Amino acid sequence: MKNHTFDWGLFNSIPIIGILRGLTREKLDHILPAYYSAGFRNIEVTLNTPDATSIIQWLNEKYGEQMNVGAGTVCSPADLEKAVNAGAQFIVTPILNVDVIHSCVESKIPIFPGAYSPTEIYQAWEAGASMIKIFPASLGGVAYIKQIKGPLNNIKLLPTGGVSLENFSEFLQAGAEGFGIGGEIFDKKLIAADKWQELEEKMRHFFNKYQDFVSAS
């Protein structure tokens, strides 16, 4: 198995991490081509997805040169080991685990740890995090991101949970550098109904709205 490495150029071209949770390989065989065609380049498979490690390995082999394939819901060093062995190119956590961050830094694997309070955010950044996943972003919303960016303006923030087509521009204006997004991109109803063309159109609409806003900024 050839493990591809993380590409910051791909990430920065569209700093949105699409979050896949609980989806089968059969569904993903339709979702990933649509996701890539729409313009997205970063994909996260949560470890609480059935057969997550085999899915990550499969995606790395199939899309690892075209996209950054990562593992999410990594909560412990044991989780990290499973994710890395599966070929994850980056790591996302829902919580702050400094040991996980240090291991990723040592192995030169980008790490996006979940944090919320100013203390957690600062601890994660000092430990070497690539960006801080503000989770759940819906709790404090755009106002919270703006307030955090006041004293901690040098820390890169990746709001996750509650970011939508309607509010992403406000998060960017507040200082967010990227996003983690699940259901707003991977529409559960369209996926359940196997409406792949409609799903790709929805993804493309989100991508175009993002690109239009960034270009106009």
TrEMBL record:
Transmembrane segments: none
Protein origin, superkingdom: Bacteria
CDD domains: KDPG_aldolase (cd00452)
Pathway(s) served: Carbohydrate acid metabolism
InterPro entries cross-referenced by the UniProt entry: Aldlse_KDPG_KHG (IPR000887), Aldolase_TIM (IPR013785)
Classification via SUPFAM superfamilies: Aldolase
Keywords on record: Carbohydrate metabolism, Lyase
Keyword Transcription: no
Family to which this protein belongs: Belongs to the KHG/KDPG aldolase family.
NCBIfam families, sorted: eda (TIGR01182)
Assembly mode: Homotrimer.
Name assigned to this protein: Bifunctional 4-hydroxy-2-oxoglutarate aldolase/2-dehydro-3-deoxy-phosphogluconate aldolase
